[in-house]
């Protein structure tokens, strides 16, 4: 065991030392004492407070044994005990962040740089890891119950924790400055339309229009950047579907919380350590078409599954929805064209655009402003192909200067008829 006296001498440890070197040595000491006292098996109990009392006793014992001159109030000792417990049975320094309901994302860029997102704004947290191996140990603890692994031969991994949170990890040699971990926390209580209105993400008129579109079974594409709120909006809109409809959802990581009673949830599967066993979104979309769905909801369009999704929209599966990464509605349609081509569909640009235009009814653009505020910046109707270009019409728009949502166009006669028939 590292000798804490040699490390700190008779001086009181600095906060940085207490967080790192001393804590690592203290952790090792406590584990040895718990094993000697036969308490190591108590760590399996779900009642965390059963372990905290002996932990505080071991902390005082450690300071006395190593003659460390440090004065620590009882509440700080209790906090340190909780940190040690997190290290033994949780996810170490980020366990507290995972329990914090105000944190949406946790981003770890090596052991010394931990960032969190609250209300759309990134800020650096005070939490630290001891070293790069400490980060990797926490990553492996997350992956172990999932049957996944990460090492030099498999240095990248996407996974979903038991609580629904999504994680992405990448380690050296690919990550040059140390192991990186990204955690997108899963909200048990999803946002509602009331929350969107309160946060001024959209106007009441926009919400009413989108509700009508969903009920009228308009095919909908939600576009936006990473973290803009695409999945959140998809989650809310999907709750306006008819409860009698059979809905099949396809996601890389299951996040949708539909309240319908007739839902089939499908999730992709990455390849195993031997590189086999992968099940892609495209395979699941093809399989979904054989399951007699009324609607298909694709969590994210990113590859060849787009072609099958568009074909489904054009062959009776009205009211289907998906999200896509793009900076504007026009960019979203261009990306759809590109992904159809990359899927191996051989035809003219004009015909591909006709396929896209006939499949998609509306595109909703979601943006995150510099302040962290998320807004629906545009609702666009997709009309037809004219002069070899997809013709669109903006119906609603957010104006940053006045911070107001305004209706700037009327739905076409074709869309109006569809909305009226749907109601």
Detailed description of the structure:
- Residues 90-365 form the Bacterial type II secretion system protein E domain.
- This is CpaF family protein.
- Belongs to the GSP E family.
- The chain has 423 residues and is α/β, with parallel strands linked by helices.
- The protein has 3 domains: 4-89, no CATH class; 94-184, Beta-Lactamase, CATH 3.30.450; 193-422, 3-Layer(aba) Sandwich (Rossmann fold), CATH 3.40.50.300.
- It contains 15 helices and 15 strands.
- The protein has helices at 4-8, 15-19, 21-36, 49-65, 74-89, 95-99, 132-143, 193-198, 204-215, 230-238, 281-288, 305-313, 329-342, 349-359, 413-422; strands at 105-109, 114-118, 121-124, 156-160, 166-170, 180-184, 220-224, 247-251, 263-267, 295-298, 321-325, 362-368, 374-386, 389-399, 404-407.
- The strands form 2 sheets. A 9-stranded mixed beta sheet has the order 9-8-10-11-7-12-13-14-15, sandwiched between helices. Strands 3-2-1-6-5-4 form a 6-stranded antiparallel beta sheet, with helices on one face.
- The model is unreliable at 1-17 and 41-46 (pLDDT under 50).
